Amino acid sequence: DAVVNVSYQDAVDFCRWLSEKEGKTYRLPTEAEWEYACRAGTYTIYYTGDGLSSNMRRNQTIAREYKPVSLKVGQTRPNAFGLYDMHGNVSEFCADWFGPLTADAVTDPVGCDRTTAGSKRVLRGGGCQHSESCKCRSAYRTGTLSAGGDYGFRLIAPVTLKW
User: String of b and e for 16-42 (b: at least 16 CB within 10 Å)?
Assistant: First the structure.
């Protein structure tokens, strides 16, 4: 199996390419959008509850004992929104700059601006190289711009609701 290293710029370039191809806007989620989608109405450590599901634990054991490996998409139980692989498969790039969040920015934070954040973008979800389950929890965040074999991205696009 080939390892594909994905950077923030790769994710942005893909969004641009797909937007042009499809004629609608695709983008990376903000950090707040990512966490909302991950939690899917839950308030627990993971969308599966306060512990990792058996598939996620299996992936963590493989990462610890052998070598980091991401699972094929859809191998874990989806959350209540029907989204798969939000914990521990790949760390997913978000649109926000990585930096400290203030205590008053708990609900729908806008993220840091580049002047306070530096040069990293937010990664969420905890990739398979993170063998500690705490780095896969819904609220875990880190940042980078570099490419990595356990980095990926999830796209969002606006939808029009017809009533």
Answer: eeeeeeeeeebbbbbbbbbbebbbeee
